[in-house]
Amino acid sequence: MARYLQPGTKAPAFSLPVTPDQKLALSELAGRRVILTFYPADWSPVCGDQLALYNQILPEFRRRGAELLGISVDGAWCHQEFAKARNLHFPILADFHPKGAVATAYGCYMEDVGEAARALFLIDEQGMIVWSYQSPLAVNPGADGILDALDKMPAVESLDVDAKSARKRA
């Protein structure tokens, strides 16, 4: 298995196609919690089940103040059809060219097969990785680990109150 980035590491910046003619950069989500789910390929049974589960519990992620992004080495056209077929309501980014560059930056690109490993990263509001996990390829990691990690973070409301208090003191 590739050596994926660990908590305490600054999340590598990226900008990837989310549609054939639009890109999304991690910096656009600055100040927000972000869940990155790297997965091997659209249309594979385990990947489809994993992303369908995340789509189903997307309201729970958002209630905890987190945005979800899926990333694989498939192209934007493939992602678009996959998302449409699965009725996904979160962005899927194409780490297509140069192939696996973002997965490589996160330490989860499998050079021998040309795919991203099944890896999860939770990034905090300051852009730091606060939780990460890599699952065996044939195993859907589920959402419990993500939800537990989100629940261990300070409540989103308290962050807003603290930020307002800090501005008043400054």
Characterize this entry briefly:
This protein is of the alpha/beta class. 34% of the residues lie in helices and 25% in strands. Residues 158-170 have low confidence and may be disordered.
Which stretches of 5+ consecutive residues score pLDDT under 50?
A: 158-170
SS-derived structural category? alpha/beta
The total domain count is: 1
N/C terminus separation: 47 Å
Biggest β-sheet description: 5 strands, mixed
**CATH architecture call:** 3-Layer(aba) Sandwich
Residue share in helix: 25-40%
How many strand elements?
9
Q: Please tell me the overall pLDDT.
A: 91
Number of helices: 6
Q: Give me the CATH fold name.
A: Glutaredoxin
Strand content: 15-25%
Spatial order of the strands in the main sheet?
5-4-3-8-9
Q: Whole-number radius of gyration?
A: 16 Å
SSE pattern, N- to C-terminal? EEEHHEHEHEEEEHH
CATH class group? Alpha Beta
